[in-house]
Amino acid sequence: MAQNEYIKLYDYSGWLLAFLENAYNIEIEEVLGDAETLTFSVPFEDPKAKLLKNDEEIVYYGKRYIITQITDGRDEEGKKSIDVFSELCYIELLNYVKPRDFEVLNCTPEQGLVKILEDTHWQIGTVEGNISNKYSLKETNQTVLYLIRQWAKITGLEILWDSINRKVSLVNQVGSNNGAVFRYKKNIKSIKRTMQPPAATVLYPYGANNITIAGFNNGKEYLEDYSWYISQGFSENEARAKFRKEYIWQDDSFLSAGALVDAAVKKLAELSQPVISYECVLLDLSAITGLSEDDFGIGDYVRVIDEDLGIDINGRVLRLKKYPNEPWKNEVEISYIVPGLHDAQTTSGGYSESTKPGILLGINNDPVTVTQTVVNPIPINMSTFADTNALIGLMIVGQASAQLTLTVKFTLSTREVGPIIRHTCTTGWNTIGVPFVLAQIPSGDAVLSVSLQADTGTFTIPKDHLQVYVYASSLFGGLSAETPHAMVQEKVKLIVTLPEEEVTLTFDNG
Q1: Any idea where the domains of the chain sit in the sequence?
Q2: What are the distances in angstroms from CA 28 to CA 86, 184, 322?
Q3: Regarding beta strands 444-454 and 404-412, do their DSSP bridges make them parallel or antiparallel, or are they unpaired?
């Protein structure tokens, strides 16, 4: 952080009012994923102090703040001053609300952010993450700032604010690793370590309408992680018996099981590890040396070394308090990153493939004869774990006994959907091919049925000559009249007799 930077004060129209060169007790505090504030004092007698008003803007070290509190006072020595408290200007987004129910359905991270920022004067910066992943959110009477933070949580991304240009980005991770090193007797003045055991080893996640992850977790509504205790020498069974710590996590902003399971994997990866934090008072040498190893910011990964205490760890900067004019007072809080946890925090937990498009295909296994009585030859049982759009396709090759009209209808559970197809068939062989789109299929289980009826005569469809397909994302199911199950486990026991012994093999097909 460069020296001799003055706080710049702007009026409500954005015009520069003054440089506050007499400001003192300047303090900047940042908390990762939370608030960022700037506080300072100005002498009461300073003529520029009269220019200070609530809601005015301040620019300092390349960031824009808004004044939210001004306090006049006198200290113990009788010195009069004006104390100013300001917050990063994203707090403007508290002034924008989405009344009643606000929904983001089946959207990419960027599409969702676009919708949230509609009718505000903030713009989108960079949006990272897998563009094929789709997420949903539903909230009632919430501010835009709240919705942005919820959307970041659902998509597994972190928020990066560009306060000067009023842009918000969603990135995989805030901060970087520039090789910054904190070492006792170099730039660390004091250090305190706090350790707490894992908060949970078993997580029960629930979304809106009590959505669970059972469909993606072999029927179980919970996840388990005993990796920390196993690393301490316990077997998995011992850890489960001694350290089972259950935690219920309810978050109604999750509308789909796919997004919920991704978030749950990440949350348990954190809860199942010990909380080890380091609070350091240090000297900021970056302005003096200009070396990358002395430079750091919020979210960065740094190395902390104190040979006397046996400390040599890599951690992430969670809280940062800087005194630009008194860098020897700077404070930083660092969260210890358990080896391997960083990978769990920055990946999707192995479930991102579930949002890619899939196809369900139904084919008649037996010949079908259509008369004046309605027949339903192909039920396709499907489940969607998020609202989705689907492409439906139909192919029929059959023989008409006379000229007739063949009527084809589609039903999703008990609701008739799509167009009613009425095809005039001539005597002999006829081929029918129809594609159409079903928009906004709600999440959950449903049966897609095809009904056929002829107004006269008969229409005969040979085996394998009637096909119906469903092409959509967030989809699983099959040709069945039963409820579909994801990740079904099938155990098969084979007994193989060898010349001198009997061997039993068990296979899990899951």
Answers
A1: 7-91, 96-171, 181-196+274-346, 202-273, 357-479
A2: 10, 24, 5
A3: antiparallel
- Consecutive H or E run containing 429: strand 428-441
C-alpha gyration radius of the chain: 31
Which residue stretches of 71-160 are H helix?
A: 109-117, 144-155
Cα distances (angstroms) measured from residue 78 to each of 26, 69, 73, 342, 427: 20, 22, 9, 51, 106
- Cα–Cα–Cα angle for 178, 113, 152, rounded to 5 degrees: 50
Place of tokens 């046996």: 310
Q: Domain 181-196+274-346 maps to which CATH number in 3.40.50.150, 2.30.300.10, 3.40.630.10, 3.40.50.970?
A: 2.30.300.10
Residues 6+ apart with CB under 8 A from 38: 7, 26, 27, 28, 58, 60, 63, 65, 86, 87
> Is the domain 96-171 a CATH 3.40.640.10 member?
no
pLDDT in tens, 321-379: 988 888 878 888 887 655 443 333 333 333 333 444 567 778 888 899 999 999 988 88
Of 153, 156, 177, nearest in space to 317 by CA? 177
Assign domain 357-479 to a CATH class. mainly beta
Residue 405, H or E segment: strand 404-412
User: pTM for the complete prediction?
Assistant: 0.56
Contacts (Cβ under 8 Å, ≥6 apart) of 414: none
